[in-house]
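Record type: monomer structure entry
Structure origin: computed from sequence
Chain ID: A
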Amino acid sequence: MDIFLRAKHWQLFILIIVLPIIITVAVMISALLSIASTDEPNPMLIISDMKFALLGLLVYVIGKMCWQWVVAIRLQRLAPAGVPFKNTSFKIFFWCVIIYYPLYFTFFFTFIGSISSAIGAGGLIDPSAFIWFIAVFPLSLFNTFCMFYCYYYTAKTYKTIELQRPVAFSDFILEAVLIWFFFVGVWIMQPKINEMAERESIPADAS
């Protein structure tokens, strides 16, 4: 995964930002053309198309999280001696984010599918569908916390390596925001990460 350290900013932008957009737009256009070509659109087919559209979101989330993992964990090899890193919380919250999205999509499409089936059959909506949907809400709040913690920890690690000293939150708050708005942050942070990766590859006795 060290390829994320050496990849150029434009390469990551295409992989993590542009590619998901292309996937989502392509699927939505296909769905709209399918709807326009039939007099009575099938709700279940529309839901199926939506599943593929959300593939773009998964590509974005997984790509961005993998980049954060590499920056937060692998860059620690360049940390100054005596600076401690506590990775346990980051690793737990990282995997919580990764696991959350497939679970959320499963609950979401079960809920939508139940409603569509009930409407199509002219029957009543199964109340359990609403229970599952409501149950996902606190998980969504927890996932938001996990994501922001990962932004925090990744930015802290990055700034520690850059400054070569322990840092306070005020030192890396900008980097945390740049990671949140990755489509901007990647152009600013990745060139510096490339320099860090090149520094690591230089032998210790090199002049």
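Annotation 1: The longest helix spans residues 127-163.
Annotation 2: Helices lie at 3-6, 9-36, 43-53, 55-73, 88-121, 127-163, 169-180, 182-201.
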